[in-house]
Amino acid sequence: MEGGSVYKTRSEKGECGERETMQRVMDKGVDENVHSQKLRDVYHDDNGEHESHFDDQSPIEQVALTVPTSDDPTLPVLTFRVWVIGTLACVMLMFLNTFFSYRTQPLTVSAISAQIIALPLGHFMAAVIPKQTLHLPLTGWQFSLNPGPFNMKEHVLITIFANAGVSFGGGDAYSVGAINVIKAFYNKRISFIAGLLIVITTQMLGYGWAGMLRKYLVEPAHMWWPSNLVQVSLFRTLHERDEHKGLKRIHFFLIFMIVSFAYYSLPAYLFTILTFFSWICWAFPNSVTAHQIGSGFHGLGVGATTLDWAGISSYLGSPLVTPWFSIVNIGIGFVLFLYIVIPATYWENVYSARTFPIFSSQLFTSHGQKYNTSHIMTPQFELDLGAYEKYGKLHLSTFFALSTGFGFARIAATLTHVILFNGKDIWFRSRSIMTGEGQDVHTRLMRKYPEVPQWWFLILLFGSMVLSIVVCVIWEEEVQLPWWCVLLACALAWVLTLPIGVITATTNQQPGFNVVAEFMIGYLLPGRPIANTLFKTYGKISMSHAISFLADLKLGHYMKIPPRCMYTAQLFGTIIAGTVNMSAAWWMLQSINNICDVEKLPPSSPWTCPKDRVAFDASVIWGLVGPKRLFGPLGDYKTLTWFFLLGALLPIPVWMLSKLFPKATWIGLINMPVLLGGFASMPPATPVNIASWLVVGIIFNYFVFRFHKGWWQRYNYVLSASLDAGTAFMGVLLYFSLSLHNKKLNWWGTQLDHCPLASCPTAQGIVVKGCPVF
């Protein structure tokens, strides 16, 4: 075992540090900060040069201001504490994120929660666990349960361990959504073993891509992964000596975690109307138009709000950690789309808009009724073309159709924006990677540690490909995907991971290319919805996992974690996370009656699965019915393909203005991909989710940051983590103590939204149960 907790002799110099020096210092109980400073003063490399390179900085200013340029290679890294706390954090984080992903208001428990909770646990273990060395029988290895004070490198590795296997930005694994679609929406049988293999192999494929591309996307200085700087800053904050005389950060975290824990009992159980507070509907209880405008759940959400942290952070993550310029771009896009484009197209009856609800991700018939996909499927879950022609064409709400169209525009805008604003830099950086240039002090410091052999990653990559093909061969009837489609999906992921990785590493944006995979397989295998979902899982989603792994690899790079320690933690973390993710999902799918079925669930049920509902609708649109019958020459929405051209053109005037007026720096902050992404999470997000997120983001990242910067720097990220943790713990407690035993409240305050007419159509002659007929 590497990392300082297991070694053959105490005088041997190992991968993660000087064992003899480390053990002597730890035995004396020297403080970590004092010890590290002494080692930086005396430690020299083989050429006699000082290890720290204090006068050598990263060419990226943000990195130079945030990431330390020194390293203490003697600190133990992959210790017993890392295995224990990392495993517990990984299990807990993945279970909670899986648990909350099925809720009407999904809650993402971020890695920051694990990062902060791990700190007192690490110090506690360092204080109570005996320090004696254990000898492994029949070997020369010695094992220390407690190699000394809990240090920053252990803390970083625990966080990476806990975050292994999740999607970029947090949450559970993308691939579990495919299992949910198969079991909960299609009610189709699938083996647990097949599902588990799909989840783990998808992530391992991503890990393989990441390992093969780490030389291109991790080591170069200009591949700087902006989102990691938040983590680096927080690690330094938690481990540097706190001379502040005010409230300690850890005390602040505990206080607000308890407050959040107690408060969440209101929107989650006692007074659930706080989740969607739509006062306009109360003022006009019999007006369909007022409900359409005011409903925060099924309408435009004008004046609606949420006092539920889960409702605020469900889809865009915590607004406390999003940069101000991104909030502005998202806000502009949200307002333009939701309050100008949607009302104009709805009341002008574009695409027969008034036949359907103003805001819905459901699928409809031409008469405004919900589309029953079982009427057009064969017993083998494929399209019955004769039944489809008899039952009628599939229709989308104008909101959903335009959201898809703007998704086309967002893809094209991302490519154009990157070419115009980052093209020269990316070309230069690509040449630098090929020539070995562009390496900064952090890459040079990491040369001290043995690199992970490329064949380690190749084994994972090809082994995962083989297992994926086995799944398609053995369970062909259940997954509908021919084995050759796995190879095609892997080729697609291989082609896309590098360019999308470059975009994400330099702009902090991960373009959504779902439509590429869905379009491709939709034409190759029309009428097979489950095959479409699985192809997207192996293609696009394995690439998304690669982006997550690369981001963590860069975090380890910044914090000087030995590569082989990183490999071990990510590998085992991925296996554990994938197993927990699938097991928790399987348990919920088996134990909650009618989960995800809004037609059969009681109105107050939280288990509506909004994220998976969108994935199911996508499988029907792109897989069962197919792109040719909707967006191709046979479709009613073929004009939406022009949005590709619109998106490609939109960044051009912004780029031209930035060149004409170089002193107007605000022009360069107009980011069309982000602006067009302001509503990308709708559906399943609702207007009140985004609007409340914007309000909180503006308060903390503009007013608090500008006028109380000291408070913001000290407590902002800690507050975000405490709200996440307290909300998550109360949610789990309420489920096991009340919801699991069907203990529910039924009164005015537990009825969501109070806007029953928001989903009603307004076209003449359309009859929908519970709605007036115009």
Describe this protein's structure.
The protein is an all-alpha fold and 774 residues long. The chain has a domain at 6-242 and 439-591. 59% of the residues lie in helices and 2% in strands. A three-stranded antiparallel beta sheet has the order 1-5-4, with no helix packed on it. A hairpin with a 2-residue loop joins strand 2 and strand 3 (17-18). Helix 5 (111-128) packs across helix 6 (152-163) and helix 10 packs across helix 32. The chain is globular, with a radius of gyration of 27 Å. The model is unreliable at 1-14 and 16-55 (pLDDT under 50).
Characterize the biggest β-sheet: 3 strands, antiparallel
Give me the count of strands: 7
Helix content: 55-70%
* Approximate strand percentage: under 5%
Structural class: mainly alpha
Q: Regions with pLDDT < 50 over 5+ consecutive residues?
A: 1-14, 16-55
Rg result = 27 Å
Number of helices: 32
> What gross morphology would you assign?
globular
Q: Strands of the largest sheet, in order across it? A: 1-5-4
Q: Return the average pLDDT rounded to an integer.
A: 81
Distance between the termini: 73 Å
Key terms:
single chain; 774 residues; mainly alpha; three-stranded antiparallel β-sheet; two-stranded antiparallel sheet; 32 helices; globular; disordered N terminus
List the SSEs and their pairings.
Blueprint: E1 6-7, E2 13-14, E3 17-18, H1 19-28, H2 32-42, H3 61-66, H4 80-101, H5 111-128, E4 133-135, E5 142-144, H6 152-163, H7 176-185, H8 192-217, H9 228-239, H10 249-263, H11 265-270, H12 279-283, H13 288-294, H14 309-313, H15 324-347, E6 363-364, H16 385-391, E7 395-396, H17 398-435, H18 441-446, H19 454-474, H20 476-479, H21 483-507, H22 514-524, H23 529-558, H24 563-591, H25 610-625, H26 627-630, H27 643-649, H28 651-660, H29 665-668, H30 672-676, H31 687-707, H32 709-737
Antiparallel strand pairs: 1-5, 2-3, 4-5, 6-7
Helix pairs in contact: 4-5, 4-6, 4-24, 5-6, 6-24, 7-24, 7-25, 8-19, 8-21, 8-23, 8-24, 9-23, 10-32, 15-31, 17-27, 19-21, 21-23, 22-23, 22-25, 23-25, 31-32
